[in-house]
């Protein structure tokens, strides 16, 4: 199985929700987990818990949570762990109520933005940088992302890994601009 596209949401009742990733530094025999959560509740049936790695030192891998009758609506989060230590997480919404919209992040602050985590409020982890590899937002510039409508926690980080701002419970209902000012986020 190979990914067809990266998505920010799924319509109601998909048969599969999958996560794909590249990895390095692994060793066959290590213990690993792929824990799937739906609205913060562990889906033990869909998760891989206490498995032994046999995928070699580097490459790409994938895991899916599956239900041939259709998965329920909610916030889906996968947390990857190696030897009991979380390594990565990602989350998205499933459900017809979550439409894909544009979110323009406008940096009106004095610090360059080097990462933005935009995580459904029911997720337990921030997940990866939504800007993408090598993308930054210098002061006075903006960058547009695709997101699903819903309620999010937003974390904006500078190039040294310091938090510029954390804004919890941001409701995104339509395409719009999220303005970052020094210490003051302004959603619109």
Brief write-up:
Helices cover 0% and strands 54% of the residues. The protein has 188 residues and is mainly beta. It is globular, with a radius of gyration of 17 Å.
Describe this structure in words.
- With 188 residues, this protein is mainly beta.
- It is built from no helices and 15 strands.
- Strands 1, 3, 4, 5, 7 and 8 form a six-stranded mixed β-sheet that branches. A four-stranded mixed β-sheet has the order 11-9-14-15, with no helix packed on it.
List the helices and strands and how they pair.
Layout lengths: L8 E2 L5 E8 L7 E8 L2 E2 L5 E5 L6 E8 L7 E9 L2 E10 L5 E8 L7 E6 L21 E7 L1 E8 L5 E10 L3 E6 L2 E4 L1
Parallel strand pairs: 1-8, 9-14
Antiparallel strand pairs: 2-6, 3-4, 3-5, 3-7, 7-8, 9-11, 10-12, 12-13, 14-15
Output the structural class: mainly beta
Helical segment count: 0
Query: Low-confidence runs (pLDDT<50, min 5 residues)?
Result: none
The average pLDDT value, as a whole number, equals 94
Q: Could you tell me how far the N terminus lies from the C terminus, measured between alpha carbons in angstroms?
A: 39 Å
- What is the N-to-C succession of helices and strands? EEEEEEEEEEEEEEE
- Helical content band: under 10%
Report the sheet with the most strands, covering strand number, pairing sense and barrel closure: 6 strands, mixed
Shape: globular
What is the assembly state of the chains in this entry?
single chain
What's the count of strands? 15
- Rg from Cα: 17 Å
Beta-strand percent range: over 45%
């Amino acid at each position: 199985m190979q990914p067809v596209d990266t998505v920010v949401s799924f319509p109601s009742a998909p048969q599969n929700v999958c996560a794909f990733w590249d990895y390095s530094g692994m060793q066959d025999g290590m213990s690993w987990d792929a824990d799937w959560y739906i609205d913060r509740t562990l889906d033990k049936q869909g998760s891989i818990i206490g498995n032994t790695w046999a995928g070699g030192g580097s490459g790409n891998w994938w895991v899916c949570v599956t239900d041939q009758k259709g998965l329920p609506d909610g916030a889906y989060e996968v947390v990857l762990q190696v030897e009991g230590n979380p390594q990565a997480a990602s989350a998205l919404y499933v459900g017809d109520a979550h439409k894909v919209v544009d979110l323009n992040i406008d940096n009106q602050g004095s610090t360059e933005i080097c990462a933005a985590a935009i995580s459904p409020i029911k997720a337990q982890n921030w997940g990866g940088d939504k800007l993408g590899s090598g993308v930054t937002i210098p002061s006075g510039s903006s960058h547009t992302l695709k997101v699903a409508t819903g309620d999010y926690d937003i974390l904006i980080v500078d190039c040294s890994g310091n938090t510029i701002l954390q804004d919890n419970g941001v409701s995104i209902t339509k395409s719009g601009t999220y303005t970052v000012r020094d210490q003051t986020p302004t959603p619109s």
